[in-house]
């Protein structure tokens, strides 16, 4: 198992929030692909402006650090790169090797570049400390001040040896005697080449007060007449400017903005000076006459879906013509067409909701990949073009570009050709087929299963993932870390014939068909190595998972209903896949009730999530869980002995009682979590009267509503604005059934 690293901070708090200063008549926004100097990143949350990485994920360890995570670089050509707007000073960083042995192997470089194409090594790591010591240590390099790119680059990867990188900072270079220009507006520095946003009433002269700084310590900075150019340069007038700025000083430079019309007013400001490398100093000016930028005249066109799989969709479209200067907001709605539209002046993030539609993308990109896609489902999309940024954003709200795609179901193709359940060699033939698969590290589960399939976008740039055992909704700000959750081996590690199988890792230890995300302290630890079963006498419980004694006084763990079939299929998969490998005999332990698992398997058959997950794992591991594709095959195998069962009754478990019936309703609730309203989509098998109830953790009913539910899809809105923050249950109740879902309210 890979060692996890992070730096122990004394005190470090970064609060990344978008701030709206609505009270200001003139409000600047900086938009640039470059990072201002100084710049820093602790590897938490979204990368700052000018930073980019190809690393596959993060390392984190709450046992070792106060604040996590650190970036994980684990492949040849993986990188962390910073594109700078100005000369760099000292670069400091924390770096460590993550390895299965010592000394660390491979080559890792810290590099600089003037143009982003030609790179020079600043430092090269091979087998020396700190990578060889498996600890994070602080290092530093001093780049050339002409460089504008700094890169941490995995030059040569050796299997089992990765790099953890944290707390990268680039300082201002030491002030020298030479003149050095910098420009500020309202106390904010705008690097040369960046964009400043303003607004003013149409036809009203409005003062824009900048300042020119000289960061040099000896020589004065000489400035000559600033010049406005571009489409609407006539809206801008230079009032005064300093001819000279003393060393380590600043002077005002003032302009007047008089919008000639409503909407977008574009210009470029050029400030000639005698700085050796920033002459002229360029600022792109985005003026707004009135309230908003100009509305786009046309929408994007030609929406297609070049990728449509059971677990993934990619949409792409053609840019609007004439082009927009802002970008495109993409909305998504599952099951029904989109009638919602964005509101001018509002800033949205991926995961935010506009009514019942969710934001998939807000960018200049002409493609998008939504999260949490499952099989055989209708997905509707709408693309809105916009101009401007921040509070000046103007969306074209009418006639958006729209499209719909239905994801396919399971697609095993010819995978099972030659497999015959009527043949006595069926268990071994099936095992040989599915055992032939790709190896994925246990430590990569968050980068694969969590990030690429199971996590769902939600409001405020956050994501949410569901505990397989309990239904707990874990809300987090990316990147995902294993501080609260763990990767649960459904077929327990201690049950494996190859135990211990984790050092070094064996395929059975990291097989993702067997792994599910669960909350550690409240479900992983109580389950421990106990068999799964039906709890009659509860010892402890958390949400919908519980530990206790079954009717035969066996200590068992009972997961929530929605996971019972999935857990059973994982338990069937593992001995089928690994029995006989290296001469070892696999099977369910004697403590595990096999008949109960087969009952759960048929009671909770593979749904669209299970089919999508199976397709995703086929793309990752290149093998499938055959009991998702062919549910009746479980009847032909004794999973304790892995012997063939001839001529079984199929299905081999009959679920006949009312209490064992599958849920009558297909329910989706969104968003999760919510601050005020929750949308409830219910697909009913027939028209009938139902009670819709919301209860708190004590079981107290705090909301009730009687509705007549029509056969097919029904959509309801529940106002939760006056609910306290916490976890609630939504229950749809009829005379014959109860179906529940979890609600999470945050404030």
Question: What's the gist of this structure?
Answer:
By secondary structure, the chain is mainly beta. Helices cover 10% and strands 36% of the residues. Strand 38 (537-542) and strand 39 form a beta hairpin.
The profile of the biggest β sheet is: 6 strands, antiparallel
Please tally the helical runs, counting DSSP H or I stretches of 4 or more residues: 8
Number of domains: 5
Distance between the termini: 38 Å
Q: From the structure provided, what is the oligomeric state, counting identical versus distinct chains?
A: single chain
Q: Say how many strands there are.
A: 49
Mean pLDDT: 88
Structural class estimated from helices and strands:
mainly beta
Poorly predicted segments? 1-32, 61-67, 655-663
Beta-strand residue percentage: 35-45%
Task: Describe this structure as you would to a colleague.
- It is a single chain.
- It is built from 8 helices and 49 strands.
- The strands form 13 sheets. Strands 2, 4, 5, 7, 10 and 12 form a 6-stranded antiparallel sheet that branches.
- α1 (426-435) packs across α5 and α5 packs across α6.
- The chain is globular, with a radius of gyration of 30 Å.
- The protein is mostly beta strands.
- Helix content is 10%, strand content 36%.
- It has 5 domains: 34-170, Jelly Rolls (Sandwich), CATH 2.60.120.200; 181-289, Immunoglobulins (Immunoglobulin-like), CATH 2.60.40.10; 301-406, Immunoglobulins (Immunoglobulin-like, Sandwich); 426-658, no CATH class; 663-745, Immunoglobulin-like (Sandwich).
């Amino acid at each position: 198992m890979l060692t996890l690293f992070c730096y122990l901070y004394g005190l470090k708090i970064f609060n990344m929030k978008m701030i709206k200063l609505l009270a200001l008549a003139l409000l600047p926004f900086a938009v640039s692909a470059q990072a201002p100097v100084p710049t820093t990143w602790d590897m938490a949350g979204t990368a700052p402006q000018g930073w980019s990485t190809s690393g596959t994920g993060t390392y984190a360890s709450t046992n070792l650090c106060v604040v996590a995570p650190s970036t994980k670089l684990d492949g040849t050509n993986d990188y962390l790169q910073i594109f700078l707007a100005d000369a760099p000073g000292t670069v400091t960083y924390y770096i460590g090797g993550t390895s299965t042995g010592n000394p660390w192997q491979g080559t890792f470089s810290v590099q600089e570049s003037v143009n982003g194409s030609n790179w020079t090594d600043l430092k090269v790591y091979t087998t020396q400390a700190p990578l060889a010591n498996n600890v994070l240590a602080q290092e530093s390099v001093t780049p050339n001040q002409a460089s504008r790119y700094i890169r941490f680059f995995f030059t040569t990867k050796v299997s089992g040896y990765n790099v953890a990188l944290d707390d990268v900072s680039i300082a201002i270079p030491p002030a020298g005697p030479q003149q050095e220009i910098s420009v500020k507006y309202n106390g904010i520095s705008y690097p040369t080449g960046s964009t400043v946003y303003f607004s003013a009433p149409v036809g009203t002269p409005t003062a824009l007060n900048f300042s020119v700084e000289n960061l040099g310590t000896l020589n004065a900075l000489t400035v000559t007449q600033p010049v406005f150019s571009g489409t609407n340069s006539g809206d801008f007038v230079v009032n005064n400017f300093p001819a000279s700025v003393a060393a380590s000083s600043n002077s005002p430079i003032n302009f007047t903005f008089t919008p000639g019309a409503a909407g977008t007013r574009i210009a470029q400001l050029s400030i000639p000076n005698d700085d050796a490398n920033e002459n002229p100093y360029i600022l792109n000016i985005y003026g707004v006459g009135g309230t908003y930028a100009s509305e786009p005249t046309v929408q994007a066109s030609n929406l297609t879906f070049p990728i449509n799989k059971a677990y993934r969709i990619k949409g792409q479209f053609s840019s609007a013509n004439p082009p927009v200067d802002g970008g495109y907001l993409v909305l998504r709605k599952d099951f029904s067409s989109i009638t919602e539209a964005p509101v001018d002046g509002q800033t949205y993030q991926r995961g935010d909701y506009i009514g019942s539609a969710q934001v998939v993308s807000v960018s200049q990109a002409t493609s998008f990949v939504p999260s949490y896609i499952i099989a055989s489902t209708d997905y509707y999309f709408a693309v809105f073009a916009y101009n401007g940024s921040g509070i000046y954003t103007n969306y074209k709200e009418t006639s958006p570009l729209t499209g719909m795609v239905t994801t396919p179901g399971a697609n095993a193709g010819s995978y099972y050709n030659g497999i015959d359940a009527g043949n006595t060699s069926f268990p071994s033939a099936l095992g040989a087929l599915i055992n032939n698969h790709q190896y994925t590290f246990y430590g990569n589960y968050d980068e694969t299963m969590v990030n690429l399939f199971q996590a769902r976008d939600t409001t405020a740039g956050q994501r949410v993932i569901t505990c397989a055992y309990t239904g707990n909704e874990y809300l987090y700000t990316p990147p995902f870390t294993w501080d609260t959750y763990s990767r649960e081996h459904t077929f327990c590690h201690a049950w494996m014939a190859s135990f211990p199988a984790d050092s070094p890792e064996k395929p059975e230890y990291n097989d993702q068909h067997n792994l599910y995300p669960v909350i550690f302290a409240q479900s992983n630890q109580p389950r421990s190595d106990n068999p799964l079963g039906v709890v009659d006498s509860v010892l402890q419980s958390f949400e919908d998972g519980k530990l206790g004694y079954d009717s035969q006084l066996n200590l068992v763990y009972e997961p929530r209903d929605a996971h019972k079939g999935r857990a059973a299929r994982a338990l069937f998969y593992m001995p089928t896949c690994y029995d006989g490998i290296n001469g070892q005999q696999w099977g369910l332990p004697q403590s595990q009730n096999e008949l109960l698992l087969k009952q759960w398997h048929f009671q909770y058959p593979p749904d669209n999530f299970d089919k999508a997950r199976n397709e995703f794992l086929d793309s990752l591991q290149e093998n499938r869980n055959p009991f998702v594709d062919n549910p009746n095959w479980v009847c032909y195998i004794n999973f304790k002995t892995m012997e063939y069962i001839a001529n079984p009754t199929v299905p081999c478990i009959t679920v006949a009682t009312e209490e064992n019936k599958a849920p009558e309703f297909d329910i989706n609730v969104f968003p999760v979590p919510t601050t005020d309203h929750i949308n409830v989509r219910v697909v009913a098998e027939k028209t009938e009267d139902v009670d819709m109830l919301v209860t708190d953790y004590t079981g107290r009913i705090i909301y009730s509503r009687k509705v007549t539910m029509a056969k097919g899809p029904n959509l309801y809105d529940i106002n939760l604005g006056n609910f306290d923050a916490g976890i609630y249950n939504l229950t749809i109740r009829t005379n014959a059934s109860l179906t529940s879902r979890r609600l999470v309210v945050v404030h």
